[in-house]
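Case study 2.
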Amino acid sequence: QVQLVESGGGLVQPGGSLRLSCAASGTIFRISAMAWYRQAPGKQRELVARLFYDITNYTDSVKGRFTISRDNAKNTVFLQMNSLKPEDTAVYYCNLELKQRLWDDYNVYWGQGTQVTVSS
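Prediction:
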């Protein structure tokens, strides 16, 4: 089976930076897409950033501040967050679309979530 382990969250002051990591382990043949979502209390989960091969997409509120990247050898996706604002406070979840074997279909897997709090 596949497991995703997230790390890097924490408390940071406005204007600060954090780098989130999400490492996938288990049987993995190929990853087609990697993404980061976030959910603040009382709000719907929203897509923050997505990486499909070399194509990136960001929600408007984080463009120019956040960067999604990957390490293919380690099956890991990162989210570099700069110039953080209080409204960035949320639980951040990584999301991977992958197939475990050549003959398998692609399936979606979620990380456990990591808390990011931006406050003075």
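The CA atoms of residues 31 and 72 lie 9 Å apart.
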